[in-house]
Each structure stands twice: as structure tokens, then as C-alpha cells.
Amino acid sequence: MTYEEIKKNMPEEYESRKKDKLRYRYPRGESYLDVIQRLEPVIIELERQRAPVIVISHQAVLRALYAYFADRPLREVPGIEVPLHTIIEIQMGVTGVEETRYKLMDSTVPH
């Protein structure tokens, strides 16, 4: 369902999510906090890696991983911009996280 469909067909769920995106859990779904907890072993494994790693996943997972590695506060996780069709390269630098974004597709070109 799109957010507009949820707003129309499930207004209570739509409003609950709007009030607290970090803790809101869709029926039979996960909250951002659930995702973050589930990612803990993945994060430990990613931190052990010495070679480049590519992660392809849903936006919620990517937001949570990005927040962790970029040292962003938990409350910011749901609002982190993770554009579609984009590679976000993160490297740990001397002054913190260095980020480069590579757009894979031009959304203005018809497919």
C-alpha cells in the first residue's frame, strides 16, 4: 500500500505512524527499533570487515545502518534520506565519516 492508501483505508495506523515513526509498528510488521535490534549482529560483522562491503537492502535497514556508522542520533533514523537508485559510499576518515553518493539512474529519463 502507498502512504496515501494507508491514510485513506487505515487512518488510525497512518496517524500513529505519523506521531512516532521510530517506535511505530505496522500490524504484523516491524518498527525502526525492531529493525535496529535485528541488525546488531550484522553491524558487528560489518565492523570486522577490512575489505569494502556493499549492502543492498530496504530503506529502513539502510537508514538504520547509515545512522549507526555516521553516528547519528536514534531519533533521526526515520528521517534519514536514502534515495532510490543511489550508492552511498561511507568511509571512516580522520575527522569522522566521509560520504560520497553515486546516482545510478536519472529519474527524469523515461525508462
Task: Write a short abstract of this structure.
With 111 residues, the protein is of the alpha+beta class.
Describe the structure.
The protein has 111 residues and is an alpha+beta fold. The protein has a single domain, classed as 3-Layer(aba) Sandwich (Rossmann fold). Helix content is 40%, strand content 14%. The chain is built from 4 helices and 2 strands. Strands 1-2 form a two-stranded antiparallel sheet. A hairpin with a 2-residue loop joins β1 and β2. The longest helix is centred in the middle third of the chain and has 17 residues. The protein is globular. It starts with a helix and ends in an 8-residue tail after the last strand. The model has no long low-confidence stretch (mean pLDDT 91). Pfam families: His_Phos_1 (PF00300). It comes from Carex littledalei. GO terms for molecular function: 6-phosphofructo-2-kinase activity; ATP binding; fructose-2,6-bisphosphate 2-phosphatase activity.
